[in-house]
Amino acid sequence: MIANLAQGVQVFTSNVYLVDGERTVLIDPGANFDVVSAIRERVDDLDAVVLTHTHRDHVGNLEAVTDAFDVDTWGYDTSIDGVDHAIEDEETVQLGDDEYVALHTPGHKNDHLCFYAADAGILFAGDLVFQNGSFGRTDLEEGDRELLIESIDRLLERIDEGLEEMHTGHGPSVTNNPYDHVELSARMARQA
């Protein structure tokens, strides 16, 4: 089961996904709200925190979560404070009940990862792509439009039209033809 704990929260934060199952994982703890209470309303414990990337709106609550649940954090770059274990490009990670492949997708930030479960038809896209052809900002430090386009193209090569759910770092999740939204993001990033 996937729940966005930031849904309805009226502060600047990222989406925060609790993926419950065999391995209960929090994807991006968000920022500026009491995510610990939101987690405790749904589960008793966490097995890990997994990061799409380390922009402040995605990791502001990281220390509160790791302290409250005594869990380690997994991300792309262990040289960044708070990232305990590295997830390599193409590594398989278990989130909930499904196996996901981690895809290193820089362009928005150097340490950006997307997570894709082909069998389940689920993508955690972080801030790479969003609904309706939107895509991650490239005007921040480490942003690079050409690299972002390459990352979106790489994602398109991996996913297929059977994609059922795309959970993004901001805005609503996409459950109606999410593959089309990623294709549109690739086109829009080239035009902007």
From TrEMBL:
Cofactor dependence: Zn(2+)
SUPFAM superfamilies: Metallo-hydrolase/oxidoreductase
Keywords: Hydrolase, Metal-binding, Zinc
Metallo-beta-lactamase domain segment(s): 13-170
SMART domains assigned to the protein according to its UniProt record, in alphabetical order: Lactamase_B
Top-level taxon: Archaea
InterPro entries tied to this protein: MBL_Glyoxalase_II, Metallo-B-lactamas, RibonucZ/Hydroxyglut_hydro
Pfam families in the cross-refs: Lactamase_B
GO molecular function, one term: metal ion binding
Signal peptide: none
Protein name per UniProt: Beta-lactamase
Taxonomic source organism: Natronorubrum tibetense GA33
Lineage per the UniProt record: Archaea, Methanobacteriati, Methanobacteriota, Stenosarchaea group, Halobacteria
